[in-house]
Amino acid sequence: MSKPDYQATNLPLWDFLTILASEGVDFLLSGEEDKVPLSSFDYEKTKICLFFSANWCRPCQSFTPKLVQLYNVLRTMGKELEIVFISLDHDEDGFNAHFETMPWLTVPFDVKLHKKLRERFHVVRFPSLVPLNLDGQSVEEDLIGLIEDFGEDAFPFTKKRREELKAIDDSMRQGGKIDQLLAHPGRDYVVASDGGKVLVSKLIGKTVGLYFGAHWCPPCRAFTAQLVEAYNQLLSSRGDCFEVVLVSSDRDQKEFDVNISSMPWLALPFEDRTRQDLCRIFNIKAIPALVLIGPDGKPISTNGKKIITLYGAKAFPFTQSSIEEIEESLRKEGDSLPRQIQDIKHQHVLKLDMAKAYVCNYCERQGKFWAFSCEACDYDLHPTCVEEAS
Q1: Among 50, 267, 290, 387, which has the minimal tally of Cβ within 10 Å of its Cβ?
Q2: Does this UniProt record's set of keywords contain Chaperone (predicted)?
Q3: Angle, CA of 92, 111 and 30, to the nearest 5°
């Protein structure tokens, strides 16, 4: 889930204008092929960014619609933003096909300034969105990553703004308010597999697992089965003290619907951006992942997957002290068992072993933790199924 390493250098606006002037270019083109004089811009108020992109570039095709959405939203909000497309296409047909998807301006393709501009702004990867610096304020270089993470909230794309946004994320992560993590002014609920809505306020005071997963991911489907088992065990033994909320990485609504239909818990709505926000806030780089939030709303562990895989429902309430108690109990159990045995049901010596999961070859039930295993063949016994030879 990591993002590409986009790099470019922000430079003064005047560098861009000087390069255009060196070729006698004093205008940009709009989508209607109207000439927009460079002298018509209010450079004191307008944030200008150069967008280096190409129609043949798949990452460019993927990012451009996101940038279009951001541009339209910010302009609707009255933000002074202008984007200038610098085409890296091989021919004019490619340039035209790409530019017709964009609502902003472009340097004319026929003046062939793309190479000079690319070199001057040290653009090494596509797409790149390079802010032009007028007032000397430090400008965030990796606008692609910033926009992917924060959308329109990233404006005006400065390092100061990134620091503010990171501080907000830190506050959200450590603030102890599950309702602030999962809800916002436009939505105060999560959804159930049957389509019903459950108020996020009903999760306050519970231990909550934020499950980052997707139906297309085989490891997620395998972990879902383990999490369902632990969830159901806790539901039957401890009541309504533990809830799971799916934070989906499914590819579309249909896939999301299939995914949640197999789960007994809740989910964030697929269309809600909070899904992406939580991935960023908890630094989720791979799925499946499980972040455990305590009844006080503060994180217990970002490695809930390992806890569930190793200990299942036994680990509840998933705190460090509860894990230590389990491990001490297992150690004592292991100390009380012989290091090896000769079972009458098997011809080889069986040695004591610690296993995450196994199936007992005698009773055919699932087992965890201690087992007596054969080093010569695939044979495991629960300690309770052992019948030692006399």
Answers
A1: 387
A2: no
A3: 70
Cα end-to-end distance, the chain, whole Å? 57
The predicted model scores a pTM of: 0.77
Verify cis geometry, omega within 30 degrees of 0, for the bond prior to 317.
yes
Which structural domains are found in the chain, ordered by start? 13-155 (3.40.30.10), 178-326 (3.40.30.10), 337-381 (no CATH)
The pair of three-digit structure tokens given for residue 147, joined into one six-digit string: 């926009």
Q: In what order do the strands lie in the sheet with 81-87?
A: 11-12, 128-133, 47-53, 81-87, 105-106, 27-29, 35-37
